[in-house]
Here is the input.
Amino acid sequence: MALDPVTLAVIQNGLRQIASEMDLVHEKTSFSPVISEAFDRSNGIYHRDTGEVIAQGEMGLPIFVGVMQFTTQAVIERRRDLEPGDVIIINDPYLGGTHLMDVKMVKPFFYRGKLWCYLSNTGHWPDTGGMVPGGFATKATEIQQEGLRIPPVKLCRNGELVSDIVDMVLNNIRVPEERIGDIKAQVGALTVGERRLTALLDRYGADTVEAAIVELKARSEQQMRAYIDSVPDGTYSFSSFVDSDGIVNEPLEIALDMTVRGSDIHFDFSRSSPPCKGPLNGVWGATQSAVYVAIKHIFPDVPINSGCFAPLHIKKPVGTFLVGEYPRPVAGCASEVAQRIMEAVFGAMGKAIPDRMFAAPAGTSGNFSMGGYDPGEDRNYIMYFFSGGGYGGWWETDGLTNGCSTVGISKTQPVEILEQHYPLVFEEYALREDSSGAGRHRGGYGVSYRVRLLRGMATASFLMDHGRDGPPGLEGGLAGATNELIVSQSGRTTVPEHISKGEGYELQPGDWVQVRTPGGGGYGDPHARDPALVQRDVARGYITAEEAARFYPLASAAD
Here is the structure.
């Protein structure tokens, strides 16, 4: 079926708008601030036979583009008994998932009695049980210690919640009264998507919309291949490192050999470290999705659907920590390991096309979980918090300051909201001076914040990264500052043994946690930086005069 350009564009934007409206409903009706304020969620439309992504909401986390595709495929493979009104709930990391806190729902969409596609979403629940509040158990050695693992089961049957499943879930997690709100928000988002997609099909006809989907996929692939074809053929290698697995205090290597051949790219991570004891194992779905998102960062103009990933060929690195299998713990797979994978892709591509690339971003979500009992409100609570960092400088200008993690478009939750929800106060939240990587175009700055517990008792856990080495620079640029973490208990301050990871810190009123996030790597020789820009940064308090003299001597001489 031949489609005119106007109709094709209208349908493309209509599909995207449906997914974006699902995102909005999900956001506005969720109980957890990490979803309602930080946007740690995603909604999309997926093919009825292949499970491939057709459209994803513009406000959804990019890392879920691939992950939700693999989750939907797992549901298609395992559940052949789905009927109108059914909703599957699943968070199994080994079935195309991430960590246990990312809970997925998949709903078959029927149009005029026929299965037409799947509507799927993900929401990060602040807790799914496990040995520490929030699920980021850095000492976990098996998946059971991380929380409740849910296979693809029916949460809804014929449009009604299945009470047995709901009871089982709520009885195995902390703060169940909050989780039931998040459950209903996800189901509600799928319901809205069902209504809007029905209206789109009624208006343009199922055959026309299906023809548009086929054409849009082909065009995305064509556009991605055109970009790849501009990259010189060859094999480019780069390694990035995870600080540790939380158990063995040694770095884990992500070694990438990236081969560009015509309009295809082949990714080989088989030289990476073997599976680890702690929760920094990746899972195959998240590993693949990390590569997809990295390439989308490099070539952002390509519309999201399965076509843009067709030229990307990822060899499954069996025997490495990037393919965690049952029962290995995986809490850090999406938020930390995925960002190190992306950093490896950025580094390899930086060797291929340095004049079109950027230095490494902060590359950590800064996962900070704190749970306890608030005597002032007479209730239990769990706070999950993540923070921004600097993006790398690039060929045209400086890097972004306090940008979100590279796996998402999420934002830091407003501290005023967190102070209303939980018994704590943010005594500091500021840009972190002297944190950017020096370069002709410097990296962006990280942030520095301090949280103090006001009342009750709490347990804090941390799963962060880039504590050993800062985000690397490019083309002579220097690395950004490393992640720093300090905990004060009864007036005694300590730094975790694993620098960026630790769990089970018992806090009393007055105790505090200080976090300083990494800055982005610099791009180009620092000596080539415009002295006026250095002096501007000093005047604004971004960098001290001493650091400016150290990294930018030409600016000091001009002054």
